[in-house]
Amino acid sequence: MTELQAGQAAAVPRIEVKARRLRYRDVLIALIAFAVLASLPMFFGSKALLDFVIRCSAFGLFATSLNLLVGYTGMISFGHGMFFGLGAYGFGLIMQRTGVPVPVAFVATLILTTIMAAVIGAICVRLKEIYFAFVTLAFQMLIHSTILSWASLTGGDQGLRGGIPRPVFLGIDLSNHVHLYVTSCALLVIGLLAMRQIAQSPFGYTLRMIRDNASRASFIGIDVWRAKLTIFVLAALFASTGGIIMALFVSGAYPEFAYWTISGEGIFINMLGGVTTFLGPMVGTVLLLILNDTVTRLTEYYGIVLGIVILFFAIGLRKGLMDFVVEWYAQRRVEPGERTP
CA 165, CA 176: separation in Å to the nearest integer? Predict the structure, then answer.
């Protein structure tokens, strides 16, 4: 072995040890976060607070899954909301029509989402930039139109009514609000942890390489189409999980869950929180829901306030909140002598 080869061979175990430590750290943080969220009902009896966290769980999973496409792969999707709606309608219909246990319906919904995402993604990921964005939007509008026109199955513009059966499984009763809250928190933490591992894995760094220069990635032997299709399907699964949580929360599903405005909210959430940090979309979700709840109570001019907020982040900060905080913190850590004049 040459000296260079020996140095590379010695570096591999150190990299593996560091990666293992980071995984353990992420798991520990996830356990602490779940413990904190699960203990909230014992200290705060406000139903509004529990409802807020459940909504954050649904939209947080959706927005973070969108960031796997936008921030990590450079694939801006205007139709990602179709999988949010697919999760809500798929789970609701399976529970209403079959009466199977909740875990079975959950897995069946994810299988259905996987099939749909694989078919749609196989077409879309071949396209570049604006064409990819608008073809995903076209598929979302197709699914939304199908929901409206197939009234005998979906309820049409009235939505999926009649409630969602929630048989008890493993001692968990999702008709109990606290049980639903804890289950939503568990799905949120598990989903975020899984997406974190994807982002920090070798596959995640492959996605970054494709984002930065897809042609060079292809030149060195990476199957760009397969990598894009894989992350497209994975992102769809997490978005579908968010839709399932929302379906359980409202005990039904509505056409608005699959409308293009849901995808627009996902893009806006990522703008608010930032796309260069993993928790940026989660922060953006909290900000948007607080903004929704506050502004709609104070004024009927919600659109004007939302437009001002968009202008502030787009023109003022020119980045999401978490992106700004991380950049500011990095600058503060630089020693005074190392700063450029």
Answer: 12
Residue among 313, 275, 274, 273 at smallest CA distance from 290: 273
Q: Which two tokens stand for residue 61?
A: 């999973």
The secondary structure of the chain, three-state, reads CCHHHHHHHHHHHHHHHHHHHHHHHHHHHHHHHHHHHHHHHHHCCCHHHHHHHHHHHHHHHHHHHHHHHHHHHCCCCCCCHHHHHHHHHHHHHHHHHHCCCHHHHHHHHHHHHHHHHHHHHHHHCCCCHHHHHHHHHHHHHHHHHHHHHCHHHHCHHHCECCCCCCCCECCECCCCHHHHHHHHHHHHHHHHHHHHHHHHCHHHHHHHHHHHCHHHHHHCCCCHHHHHHHHHHHHHHHHHHHHHHHHHHHCCECHHHHCHHHHHHHHHHHHHHCCCCCCHHHHHHHHHHHHHHHHHHHCCCHHHHHHHHHHHHHHHHCCCHHHHHHHHHHHHHCCHHHCCC
Q: HSE-up of 298 (CA within 13 Å, CB side)?
A: 10
9 vs 6: CA distance, rounded Å: 5
What are 305-335's pLDDT values in tens digits? 877 877 887 777 777 888 888 887 777 776 5
Nearest CA to 231 out of 27, 112, 64 is that of: 64
What is the tens place of the pLDDT at every residue in 38-76? 999 888 878 889 999 999 999 999 999 999 999 999 999
Q: What is the pTM of this model?
A: 0.90
